[in-house]
Recover the amino acids of this structure.
C-alpha cells in the first residue's frame, strides 16, 4: 500500500495554487494521472520522487518517505522516473546508461532484449530516434527494480505508431516487474489501454478518481456517440445550415436547424451526440 | 637564450589552473543550482577581477599578503611561507586574478545541462559529487576545456598583478611577460621581439586547439 497525503503551495501560471492530494494506491496498480496543464500532475510526481519539497506524509509499504517536512532523500527512494524528454546520459552508451544505475549486466540484457534494443547497446543516445530513446529511458528506470515507476508524459512526443508499440511494451514491463506505475497522460486511448485507474487533477485537487471506463466515457443517458469539439464555422447552404466542428484531429460537417444556427457561437465548445442508430464501421 | 621566464610562466599557469579548478568547481556548481538571493552578490564578486585594473588588485593582494598583515604574518610564522615577492605569492595572486575565467565557463556549462539528466542521476541513487563527476562534467566538455585552457592562457598573459606582487626576481618571479617588459625598458628590442613572438605563437596555438576541439565536440554530440 502507498499512502500519500501531501500539500504544497504552487506559483502556477494562473497565480497561487494549493496542491492538496490524498491518495491510497494498491501495490501493482497502473494509475493514469490526468488533468489540464498546470493542474499539478508533474509536481505531484516530483514530490513522490523526492525531487521537490512538500509537507505531509508519504508512506510506501512500511517505509516513511515523507513525514511532515522530514523527507527521505531522492537517492534512497526505490523509484524509477521516465522524463518526457528522455534525459539520457548523453556521454554514455545505451548499455552504460543502464549499468550506471545498477551494475547488473543480466538485468540490462533482459530489459534491452524485451524492448528490442540489445543490438544497439553500444550506440550513443544522440544516434537514436525518439522512440528508441524513450525505450532506453524506460529500461533505465527499471534497472533499480523500483517499487514505484513514475512516468511523466512519456509518449507524448512520439508519433502514433510508436506510441502504440511502446504502450504495449510498457504494459508488458509493468506486469513483468510487478511495479506500481503512475503515469501522467492526456491521451484517453492510452489511458484506457494501460491504466487500471484514473485520477484527474484540477487546480491541485483530485476531481475524479475511478476506472478509465467510468471517468473517460462521456456519454450520458441514451446517447451512443458523444464528442466534444470546437465550432469553427456555420455555413448557410441553400435552406439548411451546416456547422463545421473540429473533433480531435478531424473536421466534421453537421446539419443544424436555423434556430440552432442562431443560438450557437463560432469558437464555442460543443457536444456532438447521437442516439441509437446502427452505424457501420469500414 | 634564457628560457626560465617561460618555464616559470607555464609552471605558474598550470598550478593556477589546477588550484582554481578545485576551488571553482564547487563554487560554479553552487551558483548554477542556487536560487538564493545572495547569488548576484557572489557573481559580482567573482567577476570583479575582470573589470578592476590589475594595479588595484595587485595593491590589495600585496597589502593582504605582506608580512605586516595578519594573514601574511600567519603564513610566515606557521608555514614559513613568504607570500610576497615569491613564487607562492604569485600563485595566490594569480588565483584571484584568473578566478572569473574558471568560474564563468563552468557555471555556464552547468546551467546549460539538462536538469532532468542530473535528476535522473540522483534518482539512480548517485550522490551530488558522483553526478558532477560522471554525468555533469563529461556532458560539458567544451565548457570544461574552455575554462581550464582560458584560465591557463590568461595566467600566462598576466602582467600587472604579477609585477606588483612578485616583482622581478630571476628564477623566482620573473615570468615571461615581466621579462619582456624589462627588455623593452633596457631597449634590448631584439630579445623582446623573440620573446614576444614566442608568446604570440604559443597563445595562438593554445586558443586554436580549444576552438578546434570545441568544433569537433559540436559535430559529435551536437552540444
Amino acid at each position: 500500500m502507498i499512502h500519500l497525503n501531501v500539500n504544497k503551495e504552487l506559483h502556477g501560471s494562473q497565480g497561487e495554487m494549493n496542491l492538496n492530494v490524498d491518495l491510497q494506491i494498491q501495490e501493482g496498480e497502473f494509475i493514469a494521472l490526468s488533468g489540464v496543464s498546470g493542474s499539478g500532475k508533474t509536481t505531484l510526481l516530483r514530490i513522490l520522487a523526492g525531487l521537490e519539497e512538500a509537507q505531509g506524509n508519504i508512506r510506501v509499504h512500511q517505509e516513511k518517505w515523507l513525514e511532515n517536512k522530514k523527507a527521505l532523500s531522492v537517492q534512497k527512494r526505490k523509484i524509477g522516473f521516465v522524463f518526457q524528454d528522455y534525459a539520457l546520459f548523453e556521454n554514455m552508451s545505451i548499455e552504460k546508461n543502464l549499468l550506471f544505475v545498477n551494475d547488473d549486466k543480466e538485468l540490462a540484457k533482459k530489459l534491452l532484449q524485451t524492448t528490442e534494443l540489445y543490438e544497439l547497446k553500444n550506440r550513443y543516445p544522440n544516434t537514436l530516434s525518439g522512440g528508441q530513446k524513450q525505450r532506453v529511458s524506460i529500461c533505465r528506470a527499471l534497472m533499480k527494480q523500483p517499487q514505484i515507476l513514475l512516468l511523466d508524459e512519456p509518449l507524448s512526443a512520439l508519433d502514433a505508431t510508436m506510441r502504440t508499440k511502446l504502450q504495449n511494451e510498457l504494459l508488458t514491463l509493468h506486469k513483468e516487474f510487478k511495479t506500481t506505475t503512475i503515469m501522467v497522460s492526456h491521451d484517453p486511448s492510452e489511458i484506457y489501454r494501460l491504466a487500471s485507474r484514473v485520477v484527474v487533477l484540477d487546480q491541485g485537487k483530485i476531481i475524479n478518481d475511478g476506472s478509465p471506463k467510468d471517468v473517460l466515457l462521456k456519454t450520458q443517458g441514451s446517447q451512443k456517440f458523444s464528442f466534444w469539439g470546437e465550432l469553427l464555422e456555420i455555413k448557410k447552404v441553400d435552406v439548411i445550415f451546416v456547422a463545421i466542428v473540429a473533433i480531435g484531429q478531424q473536421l466534421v460537417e453537421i446539419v443544424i436547424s436555423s434556430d440552432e444556427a442562431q443560438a450557437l457561437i463560432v469558437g464555442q465548445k460543443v457536444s456532438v451526440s447521437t442516439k441509437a442508430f446502427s452505424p457501420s464501421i469500414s | 637564450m634564457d628560457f626560465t621566464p617561460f618555464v616559470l610562466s607555464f609552471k605558474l599557469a598550470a598550478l593556477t589552473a589546477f588550484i582554481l579548478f578545485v576551488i571553482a568547481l564547487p563554487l560554479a556548481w553552487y551558483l548554477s543550482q542556487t536560487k538564493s538571493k545572495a547569488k548576484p552578490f557572489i557573481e559580482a564578486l567573482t567577476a570583479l577581477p575582470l573589470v578592476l585594473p590589475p594595479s588595484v588588485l595587485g595593491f590589495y593582494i600585496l597589502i593582504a599578503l605582506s608580512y605586516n598583515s595578519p594573514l601574511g604574518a600567519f603564513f610566515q610564522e606557521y608555514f614559513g611561507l613568504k607570500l610576497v615577492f615569491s613564487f607562492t605569492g604569485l600563485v595566490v595572486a594569480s588565483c584571484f586574478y584568473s578566478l572569473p575565467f574558471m568560474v564563468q565557463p563552468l557555471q555556464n556549462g552547468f546551467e546549460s545541462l539538462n536538469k532532468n539528466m542530473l535528476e535522473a542521476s540522483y534518482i539512480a541513487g548517485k550522490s551530488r559529487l558522483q553526478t558532477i563527476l560522471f554525468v555533469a562534467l563529461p556532458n560539458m566538455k567544451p565548457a570544461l576545456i574552455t575554462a581550464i585552457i582560458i584560465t591557463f592562457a590568461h595566467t600566462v598573459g598576466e602582467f600587472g598583478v604579477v609585477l606588483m606582487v612578485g616583482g622581478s626576481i630571476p628564477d623566482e618571479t620573473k615570468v615571461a611577460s615581466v621579462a619582456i617588459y624589462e627588455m623593452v625598458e633596457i631597449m634590448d628590442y631584439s630579445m623582446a621581439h623573440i620573446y614576444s613572438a614566442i608568446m604570440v605563437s604559443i597563445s595562438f596555438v593554445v586558443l586554436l586547439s580549444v576552438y578546434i576541439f570545441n568544433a569537433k565536440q559540436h559535430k559529435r554530440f551536437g552540444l
Notes: The two ends of chain A are 45 Å apart (CA to CA). Residues 52 and 102 of chain A are 24 Å apart (CA to CA). The mean pLDDT of chain A is 88. Helices of chain A lie at 41-49, 94-101, 105-114, 130-142, 160-177, 188-194, 212-216, 258-263.
